[in-house]
What does this fold into?
Amino acid sequence: MGFVLDLVRWPVIQAPMGGGPGRPELAAAVSNAGGMGFLAAGYKTATEMLAEISETKRLTEQPFGVNVFVPYAPPVDERALQMYLRQIEHDALLPGVQLGSSEWSDDHWEAKVTGLVQHPVAVVSFAFGCPSREVVSELHGVGTRVMVTITNPGDASLAVERGIDALCVQGLEAGAHRGGFSDYEGDDGYGLLALIRAVRENTNLPLVAAGAIMDGRDLAAVLIAGAEAAQLGTAFLRSPESGAHETYKAALADATFTKTAITRAFSGRRARGLVNRFMVDHPSVPSAYPQINSATRPLRAEAARRGDPHHMSLWAGQGFRRAEARPAAEIVERIMTSYDAAVHEH
It folds into this structure.
C-alpha cells in the first residue's frame, strides 16, 4: 500500500503552511485537483483547527491532511533570550508596538490530538518531534495515516520504532521552519536529494520529499531518487486560494528580494525565508521557540497591516522565484504536465 498514492491521483502534497497561507480554500483546491491538501494546526486552538477541518470537508470530498507541532521544550538560555527581546524593543522598529508574551506553550497539544481522534482526517503529519507510540496508535485506530518530518537520517529510527507510516524528508532548501527533531546547526545540513538517498539506505518507509520543489522536473527528480510523493509549499503561496498576506505575495515576485536564508530572528527556531532588513539586523538569535515567535507576533502583525515586508516573516524555499500567481488547481495541472514532459524526455 502506498502512503498517499492509493488516496489521491497525483503525487503532489500541498505543504501545511501555518500563520495564514494554509487555509481550507487552498487545501480543498489542491485535493479537488487530484493532489492532497493540508491544513496547518500550528498557532491555532483545537477549536479553530476543528472549524477548519469542518470547512475543508464542506469544500471537498477528497482526502486531506492536518499538520500538528509536537511540543518542543529544550533548555533555553534565558539570559540570551531576554537580551534579544530587549534588543528588539530598543530598536523601536515599529513605534508603539509592544512585544507579546514570551512564555512557553505546548500549542494546545492534547486538545488537538483528542480532536483529531474524534474527527479523523486521512493523514496527520507532525513537525518538531515524533509523537509517542500511544498517540500514533490512537490515530491508527480511527483510520488516520501518520507522517513525521525529519531533516537528518538519524531521526528515521525513532519514527520506525513508534509505528509511523511515512517520513517527510525535508531538505535544507525548504522554506519555513526546519521541521526535524532538533534546532541546532549541523543537525539538518542535508540537501534534499542527499537526504532521500541517506534515509532510503536505512528504512523502507514511504518518503515524501520537501525542499524547493516547484515544478514537474523537480518532482521527477525526487521520485527517481526514491520518494513516493513531493510536498510543495512555496509553489502555492501566490495562488488566490493561499491566505498569505498580499505584501508577502508581492515580495515573492519583487526583484529587490534576491535570496533566502535560515534565521531564528522571528521565531527563535531555524526557518528559511526571504532575506529582509529584520533578518539582516538580527543575525545571531538564541534558540527559544515558541517564546520568540510569540513575542514577535504583534510586531509581524503590525508590519503586515502597514504593508512593510521588512518586518514580516516571509517564509520561502530556495525556488521562490518560480512561484506563480495562478489558481491552485492550475498549479497542480502544470506540475503534472511538466512532469510528464520530463519523464518522456528520458
Q: What stands out?
A: The chain has a mean pLDDT of 95. DSSP finds twelve helices and eleven strands in the chain. Residues 77 and 286 are 7 Å apart (CA to CA). The radius of gyration is 19 Å.
